[in-house]
Design a protein that fits this description.
Blueprint: H1 4-26, H2 28-31, H3 39-46, E1 56-60, H4 66-73, E2 80-84, H5 88-95, E3 102-105, H6 112-118, E4 124-129, H7 138-151, E5 152-162, H8 168-171, E6 176-183, E7 190-196
Parallel strand pairs: 1-2, 1-4, 2-3, 4-5
Antiparallel strand pairs: 5-7, 6-7
The structure holds S-adenosylmethionine.
């Protein structure tokens, strides 16, 4: 029989999924998926992060906070994570992680520079992105990538999730592609592009 905690976790997962399907039906071009990332995909997204050089991390497209949680698990006590998410309901889910190292920014990933400056940060060590570059309007995607290029430290690492195995040929040409990892254990199967500035 399920414990009280297990049934609460299951209820939360069901709520997350209902929330996601509702938001995806309203605006598929910004949500870009019908399931949040699996733990296998989250592990691949955060695996490039090294605790000793992760002072300032930026996340783009936090959704329900599944990757946010993975990033926090790899950070030291005095590191900061700035998580961008345009959807109000998803922002509430990420805020519920309730971690002092986390700043949830309910605004577009195009504005990374403006918010880093507001928080007296210079550049990011890592930028971890799940924004759906392939389905976003081209001009928005281009502005997000320009903002990543500008705010990522030289030698900093940019990790991008995609369901399209060749998206780097159109979208990541300004970065050095270090690795492309495939995750079959996700719905849909996904690719993680690890790039350097
Ligand atoms: C594919 S979902 C990923 C959600 C979650 N991180 C995961 O991995 O399951 C993409 C997320 O990007 C958000 N998003 C789309 N455009 C954005 C933008 N310009 N700035 C910030 N977030 C954006 C969507 O609202 C959605 O939550």
């Amino acid at each position: 029989m399920a414990t009280f905690e297990q049934s609460q976790t299951n209820d939360r997962r069901t709520m997350n999924q209902i929330e996601l399907l509702t938001e995806a039906a309203k605006n598929f071009r910004t949500v870009g998926t019908v399931t949040f990332s699996s733990r296998f995909l989250v592990n691949k997204m955060v695996s490039p992060i090294q605790k000793n050089n992760a002072q300032c991390i930026v996340e783009l497209g936090a959704g329900n906070g599944c990757i946010t949680k993975g990033i926090l698990g790899k950070m030291g006590d005095d590191s900061k994570l700035y998580s961008f998410e345009i959807n109000d309901k998803f922002c509430d889910m990420v805020r519920a992680l309730n971690d002092d190292r986390l700043e949830v920014i309910n605004d577009s990933a195009e504005k990374i520079e403006e918010y880093l400056q507001q928080h007296n940060e210079h550049k990011a060590d890592y930028i971890i992105s799940a924004v759906p570059l392939v389905v976003l309007p081209d001009d928005i995607g281009a502005r997000i990538l320009a903002a990543v290029k500008k705010t990522l430290k030289p030698g900093g690492v940019f990790v991008q999730l995609s369901y399209n195995p060749v998206m780097h040929k159109k979208h990541l040409t300004d970065f050095d592609l270090i690795k492309r990892k495939f995750t079959p254990l996700n719905l849909p199967p996904a690719f993680v592009f690890v790039c350097q500035n």
